[in-house]
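Chapter review: from sequence to fold.
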Amino acid sequence: MTARLENVGLGKGIAEVQKVVADLHLPASIRVEYGGQYQEQQKSFRDLLMVLFLALALLFVVLLFEFRTFSAPVAILASALLSTFGGFLALLITRTNFNVASFMGMIMVIGIVAKNGILLLDAEQRFRGLGFSSADAMLQAGRRRLRPIAMTALATIAGMLPLALAIGAGSQMLQPLAITVIGGLLSSMVLSLVFTPAIHYFLDREPLAETKPAEAV
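The token string follows.
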């Protein structure tokens, strides 16, 4: 059985087809398979998911060798993964289906946010080397990296706006990618400057020295 969807997304169309098939109450001896573009989309999702996990693992190893501590990679990757919720929220607000293009946008957002986290924690290490305390070094690093992080995010958002608004021929294919990137970067400006240093500070802070009671003379 074949069909051609018009004026409806692939995800919504398949959901309606699956609902109709479920209402038929077919016997267990009959097996239903969905092929075509839906099958190719599911294969692409699995491949992209494997690429995402591999990229996160390699990024964690590189950050571990760079910072020589577990707190920095955990803080950077945690903020990068949290920033994807901004992309999902943007897709939800604009009522855009999650597809291969938006999945690629999620991977782009994770890479950009991870880069911002590296810049922030690298500056924090430099201030620590100058003798600043953990809290003061993190505050100074946030002030120093505020403008570069904001400029990178705003420049990328400005470049993605024509695609997000579907301006130009063929832009509708990449519209979900642009919406995902814009939503993820808007949330990352807060996450990179708040959650990354907060997670790193609480994981890497030095324990307070315990004072010993004075001996009785």
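Two observations follow directly from the output. The two ends are 95 Å apart (CA to CA). The chain has one domain: 48-204.
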